[in-house]
Design goal:
By secondary structure, the protein is an alpha+beta fold. The chain is built from four helices and eight strands. About 25% of the residues lie in helices and about 30% in strands. The chain has a six-stranded antiparallel beta barrel with strand order 3-4-5-6-7-8. A hairpin with a 5-residue loop joins strand 7 (about 155-160) and strand 8.
Amino acid sequence: MAITGIAADTNKLLNVRKVHQDVGSSYCWVCTAVSLGQYKKPSIILDEKQIAIKYVGNLTTGGDTGKIGMILSMEYNYIASRTNGDPTFSTIKSNINNNNPMITRVGYTGGWSGGHSILINGYSDSSSNYVNAMDPLTGTYRVLDTTSTSNTGHLVYISPSGKSATATEWLI
């Protein structure tokens, strides 16, 4: 699947399942785990709400990359590796080229607390470095900018309500 309007040799998009969290809920971390898990193990189809309740007892408790790793391990028998920090565009591109979508936790800035989990599933480097992500807040693929000069850019996430966030850790 290609990103519309961009030359085929400068982009790649992995077909991960779109998972939408309920408005007002905090289980984006489960949605990204289920989407990545199903991409890696297509025969295992799980309901994200049931998984959230199984691991934390409700749909309003936030999670972290440790809990995401536990879901991937226990439910999909997939061991993810976790890295602190902000992935560079070249790291994102390399992982996507190797068919490894990346769960990325972003931390809000500008006085907002908390964070959000997205699943990076593609990129485009035709004129600017953009990444494609499955965003549980919208249940859609979204194109996100990297503030970039060559391959050292930082992933910038803007929520649908306009909150800005940057990547703090990621799993593949």
